Amino acid sequence: MAIKYVPEPFRIKSVEPLKMLTREERESKIREARYNLFNLRGEDCYIDLLTDSGTNAMSQEQWAGIMRGDEAYAGASSYFKLIEAAGDIFKYGFFQPVHQGRAGEKVLFPILLGPGKFAISNMFFDTTRAHVELAGARAIDCVIEEAKDPSRRIPFKGNMDIEKLERTITERGPENIGLVVMTVTNNSAGGQPVSMKNIKETAEVCRRYQLPFSIDAARFAENAFFIRRDEPGYSTKSIKEIVGEMFSHADMFTMSAKKDAIVNMGGLIGIKDAENPIVLKVKANCISFEGFTSYGGLAGRDLEALAIGLYEGIDLDQLSYRIGQVEYLAAKLDDAGVAYQSPVGGHGVFVDAAAMFPHIPYNEYPGQVLGVELYKEAGIRTSEIGSYMLGNDPDTKKQLKADFEFSRLAIPRRVYTQAHFDIMAEAIIAVKGRAASIKRGYRVIWEPPILRHFQAHLEPIE
User: What's the maximum distance between 2 C-alpha atoms anywhere in the chain?
Assistant: First the structure.
């Protein structure tokens, strides 16, 4: 279907030169990288869609804030600006800055989780799952079944399966559940949003069993946009009002601010009740792992940019443009019959590599196959979201089979233009056209014990 590209709600003041390597050079580079896209140099990628985390373009106000940043070790004015902005938007009593989202998990999760404990989520992303396991606990996903069918177009495919959540709690024992996490939007399920109704229902279950309820808030603003657009009763509410309601149902949150707060570095922990005993433990862990509580591993200039970015991230024009970019790319793939997690989510297009390469089994990583081919085709770097990323069972050490085999095109905010999106679509369509000629996938020849996809070495199976 034809869809009009959403015009940029900004003008460009500064540019970064790009270069396109030749096909032969790209094939050499990916071979040298051991077929791991994380091992490529950024300068060798023409369009870098590895992640939307920290890869965004900051505004003139944020860059001005960089110059105003207060670098006092304790009690910097930039810290208090951040706390004021976070309090205004999220309405919580305590906030702890950290240097990024996984740092927040490193600080918070060991307080609530340990050996013999379980954490439940609509779907854990890889780094969050890793921090559950590093704390000695085990992670359980309870996303709705509809999310597992990429071709099914329904709203709020990121929702928690409430019946499965309650069944899991009773089967494992409430005393063994350390934490329930709602990931908004649901990254591993394809950037799919969660409805306000589902957040409320999850909170009610947590209250019934007296379980702490946390939000993984990396893409909180995008989730609020989908609620405003698609959930009855919210079309006239502001994004800020919807965000306030979303977070009112949780007890705490961790956030990678490198996404919806549009900064290159930063994160937050929020605790609703400032008198909650875990606040002191969070502060203690922060001092041990991140630095003093009023900077949390960040420079004062980063705190200043984050305080500004929290407001820019909830701007409706910015969100409409951002989601519009992703929908433009998805529409081009629809026209070409390319399968992806549909309807398209917030921060990228998750192409269904299992559908493109039905002859390549999960343990040969079709999502990685597509990622490598897109780099060879047009210098586009993506990320595999599938069995390769999921890795091995922490107990049996056997390869796990993911619910999806995606190649994720994560779109940085305020970075790429319509011409870049046209190149993305053309490259995906070109790979689809020759998919049948790609007979086999990849094997892992070296891997670290945790979060292997960041470092592993692979080779093609001949």
Answer: 61
**Residue 157 pLDDT exceeds 80:** yes
d(CA 341, CA 157): 10
DSSP 408-427: EEE--TTT--HHHHHHHHHH
The catalytically annotated residue of 76, 217, 218, 221 is 218
CA distances 405 to 153, 201, 366, 385, 400, Å, are 18, 29, 6, 6, 12
Q: What angle do CA 319, 371, 130 make, to 5 degrees?
A: 75
Residue with tokens 């990622």: 371
| Sole residue written with tokens 């013999």 | 116
Per the annotation, the verdict on 259 as an active-site residue is: yes
* Residue 141 φ then ψ, to 5°: -95, 140
pLDDT tens readout for residues 260-283? 999 999 999 999 999 999 999 999
216 is catalytic: yes
Instruction: Answer whether residue 1 shows pLDDT above 70.
Output: no
Mean pLDDT over each residue of the chain, to the nearest integer: 97
Catalytic residue of the set 64, 73, 274, 359: 73
Identified catalytic residue from 216, 251, 260, 352? 216
β-pairing, 94-98 vs 267-271, is antiparallel
Q: What are phi and psi of 97, to 5 degrees?
A: -70, 145
Tokens of 130: 């890793």
Name the residue type at position 125.
Answer: F
- E strand or H helix that includes residue 97: strand 94-98
Annotated catalytic, 357? Answer: no
Q: Are strands 442-446 and 457-460 parallel, antiparallel or unpaired?
A: antiparallel
Among residues 44, 48, 52, 126, which one is catalytic?
126
- Helix (H) / strand (E) element for 353: namely helix 353-356
Q: What is the pLDDT of residues 375-431, one digit of tens each?
A: 999 999 999 999 999 899 888 989 999 999 999 999 999 999 999 999 999 999 999
Integer Cα distance of 458 and 42 in angstroms? 19
Active-site residue 73, yes or no? yes
Instruction: Say what the pLDDT of residue 151 is.
Output: 94
Residue 103 pLDDT greater than 70, yes or no: yes
Least Cα distance to 191 among 161, 213, 221, 166 occurs for: 221
pLDDT given for residue 450 in this prediction:
85
Query: Tell me, what amino acid is at 116?
Result: G
How far apart (Å, rounded) are the C-alpha atoms in residues 459 and 168?
39
Share above pLDDT 70 across residues of the chain, in percent, rounded to a whole number: 100
User: Tokens 């373009």 — which residue?
Assistant: 57
What φ, ψ does residue 13 adopt, rounded to 5°? -105, -25
Catalytic residue, chosen from 259, 332, 347, 432, is 259
For tokens 């900077």, what's the residue?
295
**Any catalytic annotation for residue 126?**
yes
pTM for the whole structure: 0.96
